Amino acid sequence: MRQWVRVASLTGALVAVLAPRAAAPPDFASVQVQPYTPPKAAPAFTLPDLAGKTVTLAELRGKVVMLFFWATW
Known about the structure:
The chain has about 70 residues and is α+β, with helices and mostly antiparallel strands. It is built from one helix and two strands, in the order αββ. It has one helix at about 1-20; strands at about 45-50, 55. A two-stranded antiparallel sheet has the order 1-2. The protein is elongated and about 60 Å long. The protein starts with a helix and ends in a 17-residue tail after the last strand.
């Protein structure tokens, strides 16, 4: 009987030590991380396409648009 009491008390102590505690909210300031902000709509712009035709962003609404920005210095 005493053996069972020791096992039970040891098991209870382990559960108390290993039980997950309530997680603290992340401290973004300490690691200098900015919280995510939802994306904003792209501003209206007009660019020439490969054939030289002027295309506005509004004409492409609902389509996937991929822009490549490059420069040479």
